[in-house]
Amino acid sequence: MKRNSFRNRSLPSQILYNGFSLIAALGLAACQPQSATPPVSEDATSEAQTASAPAPKSLTTVRFTLSWLLQGVDAPLTLALERGYFAEEGIDLQFERGYGSADTASKIAAGQYDLGFGDMYSMIEFNERNPDDALLVVAVPYNKAPFALVTLAESGIDSIDEFEGRTLGAPAGDAPRRLWSVLAEEVGVDGESVEWVTMEPRLRESFLLQGQVEGISGFIYSMLPSLLKGGKSMDDLNIFYYTDNGLDFYGNVVMGRTDYLEENPEIVQAFMRAYFRGIQDMLRDPEAGLESVIAAGDELMEREDEKLRLQIALEDLLLNEEVERLGLGTVDPERLQQTIDQTVVGFGLERTPSLDEVFVDDYLPPLEDRLPPDASEVGTLQ
Q1: In a domain, 256, yes or no
Q2: Using CA atoms, how far apart are residues 276 and 141, in angstroms rounded to an integer?
Q3: pTM beyond cutoff 0.85
Q4: 84 and 166 part of one domain
Q5: CA–CA distances in Å: residue 42 to residues 20, 57, 91, 193, 372
Q6: What is the DSSP letter of 316?
Q7: 99-119: b (≥16 Cβ within 10 Å) or e
Q8: Potential cystine with 15: which of 152, 228, 265, 274 (Cβ 3.0-4.6 Å)?
């Protein structure tokens, strides 16, 4: 199954895009550079945080890594920072850009960060290889994975069946690429017939636009802005979401090292309370969420790009019937088990972890604080 448009709007035919590099810390108007290992400080709270509520006498530093560059999809985090929710919970949150889910897992396990965003399925593989440094998912904010394959409509590839014998491109550690064999098996395609070309992440979309590959894999909100900047419209693209083709995977999660979670349950719960307030606020006022991302970004960040990324999250990744039923941040056990089983096959793992080796809901706020707003209360981006 393919999709080449979003449900509730028409996209402009071209959106300018510039990549950027960010090391972020607290701040409303601009990002402030940090060292590779953030300093532990009780003075890092921004003026906005102290203005919104009296700051505690001392704040506990939580070092957090994003999964990639700061993007529109990170609006719940930046909005919670901007409105002082972490400071109200006694947390001095210091965050940095990430370099992919595998890197996130390695750095959290090494103690460079306390918590971070990443792909749960890469974490499962990491845990099997590093059982003494096992990580655990404590929240699943994005209910749907952004995994996708993209082709140009002119290629004539209109279904996943037609990928057989084609050339696809992605960085070596790209999660959708690594799960290709599972997707291929699910839809009955000979996965081995595909030739994969490896490139740097920043070159992925260029390879497709220049005809060096016939399709690319990745997170849809990372790929789409560059393709539109390259002169393509949505009608020029065929998008194949993994979640539309038998792999009902969850999206990015919040994860931490198991010993840190066990030793600091109150800190983790406080983080969650602040973060989920940010999600609720962003859902009601996505414009405010977007502006908080822009304020935390640098001069290379393009507002239209981040608006597009946040729009994708709002329309496709955050809210659905499962979230309305179970609340934000948690999982359906049967669905999670199925995706774990698929991951074990796809990554060639030796054992299948139990559900509680992958995800626990012990640190989440109560259900009443995680139920999404009524549809009439969910805001829109202008």
Answers
A1: yes
A2: 9
A3: no
A4: no
A5: 29, 9, 9, 56, 33
A6: I
A7: bbbbbbbbbbbeebbbbbbbb
A8: 228
